[in-house]
Amino acid sequence: MKKIRTVAVFFLYVSAVVMCLHTPDVLGAEEPGNWRGTYDEVMLWINFGILAFVLIKFGRTPLMNFLKGRREEVAREIKRAEQEKEKIEDRVREASELISESESRFAELRQKIIDQGEKRKAEVIEDARQQSQMMLETAKQRIDNRILQEKDKFRSELIDQAVAVATRKLPEAITPEDDQKFVDQYVTAAMEN
Question: How far apart are CA 38 and CA 54, in angstroms?
Answer without folding.
Answer: 24
